[in-house]
């Protein structure tokens, strides 16, 4: 609720969106740093032929890194409002669960693996999806923001 006492304060859901967005932004940047990303010379724009591994574990491509960067920017920008932060966490979580399902059903050696994803990515996407949705709901349960009067 927006009152004179809490006006200008960041709500827990906004802080969560900001932190999650910042982590995605950091991961997107790290995906372009040789050493942090092993086999950096094998980094491709997209597809399963990109053999670069973030932290030696998570398969990445230029497209995958760009998606992380864009997701990070979205989380940070949407953290400016309670509703935006909630929508980012819940909507983003749904997107990550869909990406997890996609990664589970595709043939990882086919052109369908354009992101690309490996087993580690798939399970990270599952954890991210569940975690983001949980944060979005748990940090906003029982609270409905009131519209600000200008």
TrEMBL record:
<feature type="transmembrane region" description="Helical">
    <location>
        <begin position="53"/>
        <end position="78"/>
    </location>
</feature>
<feature type="transmembrane region" description="Helical">
    <location>
        <begin position="123"/>
        <end position="140"/>
    </location>
</feature>
<feature type="transmembrane region" description="Helical">
    <location>
        <begin position="12"/>
        <end position="33"/>
    </location>
</feature>
<keyword id="KW-0812">Transmembrane</keyword>
<protein>
    <recommendedName>
        <fullName>DUF4383 domain-containing protein</fullName>
    </recommendedName>
</protein>
<dbReference type="Pfam" id="PF14325">
    <property type="entry name" value="DUF4383"/>
</dbReference>
<keyword id="KW-0472">Membrane</keyword>
<keyword id="KW-1133">Transmembrane helix</keyword>
<feature type="transmembrane region" description="Helical">
    <location>
        <begin position="85"/>
        <end position="103"/>
    </location>
</feature>
